[in-house]
């Protein structure tokens, strides 16, 4: 899914940035908190953030990773309510914070952008709902494959075929896919056996030996309904047979 920056012309993007001020946050800092009143939006200029959802017991679950060029906090303005999720810095980030009144003025002056943002917000919500609904026997591996592709798109500025370390734990990947850490661990084991994943440098982290094979596997399970046992990767062979 393309970022806000990629969806608008440079003049319109710079116009929005001119209405705010830059702020910096360190890894682990909260930029926004679930339940807060929505008084601003932010444009992510550097780094990555985690979108977190908190349940009634106070436990947070990772929903998604957002990257440079993303607009943060716009959901609450379209809903005219409190924030539905928290935003935490995954690494050191820089954002431009735009006050709510200035953001609304920007939308009023750019009705086409307002409609596009609304469509983008709906698409993000539908993607999350589809991921939550996709639960059942045999779905863990396909769900994890699609989450891994999302992670690649978030962390790789130029996701060409090659080895990539995903800076997320198996637990975090499982949260994004809507499964337990144990289910995520089992799905990772299957993908390693199929040479679609390798071992990462940290505890229960993963490496992707070939992005071409990973994308092919995710697409095959989504469109063609292939069983994970029918899909194998090259394990990082050069050149990749699928390249």
From TrEMBL:
Residues 4-124 form the Cyclic nucleotide-binding domain. InterPro entries: cNMP-bd_dom, cNMP-bd_dom_sf, Env_Response_Regulators, HTH_CRP, RmlC-like_jellyroll, WH-like_DNA-bd_sf, WH_DNA-bd_sf. SUPFAM superfamilies: cAMP-binding domain-like (SSF51206), Winged helix' DNA-binding domain (SSF46785). The keyword Repeat does not apply. GO terms for cellular component: cytosol. GO terms for molecular function: DNA binding; DNA-binding transcription factor activity. SMART domains: cNMP (SM00100). The lineage of its organism: Bacteria, Bacillati, Actinomycetota, Actinomycetes, Pseudonocardiales. It comes from the Bacteria. Keywords: DNA-binding, Transcription, Transcription regulation. Pfam families: cNMP_binding, HTH_Crp_2. This is CRP-like cAMP-binding protein.
